[in-house]
From TrEMBL:
It comes from marine sediment metagenome. CDD domains: SDR_c. This is SDR family oxidoreductase. The lineage of its organism: unclassified sequences, metagenomes, ecological metagenomes. The keyword Transit peptide does not apply. It holds the Pfam family adh_short.
């Protein structure tokens, strides 16, 4: 990470913005189905990427941001941090750590003379490789069945990626005064309506079987 930051400083003369968007999930399904060995493997990789990766990335840019007296940092939260999320427990724990770390760091910078702001972005449900590459626990659910459910949810609930990311812009501008704020890239009302639609479609599918 430090090598990338050093090359960025060499090429552009500094680092004004960091978006720490580490996102990895390995398993989808109830935690109770995981063996202790699998829990350790998943926790090391997922928490290592999502939480430790975010901490390392932010740590690598802070010296330069302090030196230049300016910086805007956006860390990415995720599902399970603002409300319980079944079947992605380790992922949710890692993102909860990201939010706690970011809020604490933002509080520290409120006491410093540097114009460095740290805020947390909740992008919403976006169909990326994070979901595509998650392995369904075979003892719990058939993979084809899971894929049908996922496609249904993504059709009615997924957030538009461009619309979601546009919400980040105000928080990376010099005019940003927020520090330690959690902001969303999706509409709660739209999300609720989407899940209601999914429930209706599921009922129709069950009746037709």
């Amino acid at each position: 990470v430090k090598n990338i930051v050093d090359k960025t400083i060499e090429a552009f003369g500094g680092v004004r913005i960091l978006v720490a968007c580490a996102g990895l999930n390995l398993t989808y399904g109830p935690f109770e189905y995981l063996s202790l060995e699998r829990v350790n493997q998943d926790a090391n990789k997922v928490i290592g990427a999502n939480l430790i990766g975010t901490i390392n990335s932010i740590s690598a840019v802070i010296p330069q941001m302090k030196k230049q007296g300016y910086g805007r940092i956006i860390s990415l939260g995720g599902g399970g941090t603002d409300r319980p999320l079944k079947h992605m427990t380790i992922y949710s724990a890692s993102k909860g750590g990201v939010i706690a770390f970011s809020k604490c760091l933002a509080e520290e910078f409120k006491q410093n003379p540097y114009d460095v702001k740290i805020n947390i972005f909740m992008p919403g449900m976006i169909y990326t490789n994070l979901m595509r590459n998650s392995q369904v626990i075979k003892e719990w659910k058939d993979e084809d069945e899971f894929q049908k459910e996922l496609d249904l949810i993504m059709k009615h609930v997924a957030t538009d990626i461009e619309e979601s990311c546009s919400n980040v812009i105000p928080f990376v501008l010099p005019s940003c005064k927020s520090n330690g704020k959690v902001f969303k890239g999706f509409s709660i009302i739209k999300l609720i309506k989407g899940f209601r639609k999914v429930a209706k479609v599921r009922k129709k599918m069950e009746k037709s079987q």
